[in-house]
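Objective 1b. Sequence-to-structure analysis of Helix-turn-helix domain-containing protein.
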Amino acid sequence: MSKIEYVDIQTKKMYRAKELAEYLGVGLSTIWLYAKQKKITAYKISDKVTVFNIDEVEIALFRKVA
């Protein structure tokens, strides 16, 4: 019997661009456009890896306007 790794989506804080696009239901190019427009913050953690903090993204994109 193999061990199955389980990641609770509720506890994951940092998402790669592709994961974030799937989570938000938008295209990958939209994620990069939002980052370029400074709507969301991208964190470059190495030459080939950029991540996004899901809490910050949700606040930036879904905050209520009074």
